[in-house]
Design a protein that fits this description.
The protein is α+β, with helices and mostly antiparallel strands and 351 residues long. The protein has ten helices and ten strands. The strands form two sheets. Strands 1, 2, 3, 4, 5, 7, 9 and 10 form an eight-stranded mixed beta sheet that branches.
Length: 351
């Protein structure tokens, strides 16, 4: 059996490398992505998964996505008129639609999708995150890519390389978080999952063109309990107010009670002042300011395995944790952007 496995791995690797060489002859990177992705679904190998990442990054730079017939311009926070009613509406995965995304973001700042992912799929992703974190430790010692961890480095732009280096250094403060693009296998799996859930099409329609995933804001997380909550923030503080984006935050474990979850403000607001007294960072918002501005409105949802939260750069939230929590929270965070309105200095992959 061992000898058979070795032969199988050799054969699939050889076929994968052959497919990569063949598709590298094509001039259209978007077409190559489609063809190579079809091959990858049948025979996933590391050479194919790494080449898919490279081609998605190249396609992002080519800005190949065009406007769709269902393009939607999200409502600006200053135009939102609804007030919170004290309850956070949920949406079943099968009921998720373009109108529901727009309605919920404009009324409560986010869309809480129940059961977006089956429990069995979530279990696979939890194990994949554990394996990737273990392989990262191996990489840190040997500097040799592994099946689950092969850091993406194919950036032609020097400024983007500098920015990525800064982001990797910052990520060092979160030893149980990994950029999804540093695990080609996990990145390909995530792309396939969002396609099967129908999110790819909905996000394309909402943003108005074929979206791109950010390299440094598509993250696999295993969050251990903390003594206190994280800092309040709106991602627009560093992404900008004018980007066209949606974040899909997916809970891979039950969280919000025994494992760290999220504290959120269920209201559509503009960007708040950052770096005031009591703020954790220059880009974060002090708890005193939040409590004074929105007294009694903060909600801590209890997410179940497979639940998702969808929101944009104006959504006010923080990691919710306490000394009483005893379990790790597994999650995937992935920000989808319009390639035509992408944050400066960030790198992306066309979905």
């Amino acid at each position: 059996m061992g000898r058979l496995n070795i032969c199988t791995e050799w054969l699939t690797g050889k076929l994968g490398r052959s497919a990569v060489r063949l598709l590298q002859r094509k001039d259209n990177s978007v077409l190559s992505v489609a063809r190579l992705q079809a091959f990858e679904r049948l025979l996933p190998t590391l050479p194919v998964e790494k080449e898919l990442l490279r081609l998605r990054h190249l396609s992002f730079h080519e800005r190949s996505g065009g406007l769709t017939a269902c393009a939607r311009n999200p409502l600006a926070p200053s135009e939102a008129t609804s007030k919170p009613n004290g309850q956070l509406r949920t949406t079943k995965a099968e009921d998720l639609s373009l109108d529901r995304i727009a309605q919920d973001i404009n009324s409560q700042g986010c869309v809480w999708v129940k059961g977006l992912l089956p429990a069995q799929c979530a279990e696979y992703l939890r194990k994949a995150i554990d394996r990737t974190l273990a392989d990262k430790q191996t990489y840190d010692k040997s500097n040799s890519p592994t099946q689950w961890y092969a850091p993406f480095s194919d950036l032609p732009d020097k400024e983007q390389k500098k920015e990525l280096n800064k982001q990797r250094i910052a990520m060092g403060n979160y030893p149980t978080s990994i950029f999804a693009a540093d695990s080609p296998k996990n990145f390909s799996t995530w792309i396939e999952i969002i396609r099967r859930t129908g999110l790819t099409e909905l996000i394309t329609q909402y943003i108005g063109e074929r979206p791109a995933l950010s390299l440094s804001k598509t993250v696999l997380r295993r969050q251990p309990p903390m003594e206190r909550c994280g800092g309040w923030h709106q991602d627009g503080a560093f992404l900008g107010a004018n980007v066209k984006t949606l974040n899909v935050w997916l809970a891979l474990t039950d969280c919000g009670e025994n494992a760290p979850g999220l504290d959120i403000l269920p209201r559509r607001i503009g960007l708040m002042p950052t770096g005031t007294d009591g703020a954790h960072f220059k880009w974060s918002i002090s708890d005193d300011l939040v409590q004074q501005t929105y007294p009694g409105e903060i909600v801590r949802p209890k997410f179940e395995v497979g639940d998702a939260l969808i929101f944009d750069q104006f959504f006010l939230h923080r990691t919710a944790s306490s000394a009483e929590m005893t379990k790790d929270r597994y999650a995937i965070e992935s920000w989808f952007f319009s390639p035509e309105a992408f944050p400066e200095r960030y790198s992306g992959f066309l979905v």
